[in-house]
């Protein structure tokens, strides 16, 4: 169902991605296997505390809430605009078509070339094949 409507749902759903990432970050702290769980929790709490304190201290309540909503929506759309070009037009592999890990990463994503400005704007995520092959590499 979503596949048929994805062109229409793409941007509306991206507006929710900023909120989703924050919720996912908090939920991931419940994972006891994280090596730096305490540090992650402290830094995440500090981020929320500083961001929300500054926001609600500097702006009137209504404007702060509006800013928060617009900021998170645009954050989600921006992230979607970073990831989407690397996967558009690439094959979707299902069931028996799924090759090994290496081929799957190379066949279903692409690198975006555009020069220095593209590298800066996309923060290195234009090298999507390398990102998929080595996700923990800085």
Automatic annotation (TrEMBL):
Keywords for this protein: Membrane, Transmembrane, Transmembrane helix
Domain Fatty acid desaturase: 20-138
Residues spanning the membrane: 38-59, 65-84
GO CC entries: membrane
Signal peptide: none
Matching InterPro entries: FA_desaturase_dom (IPR005804), Fatty_acid_desaturase (IPR012171)
The protein's name: Delta fatty acid desaturase
Taxonomic path: Bacteria, Bacillati, Actinomycetota, Actinomycetes, Kitasatosporales
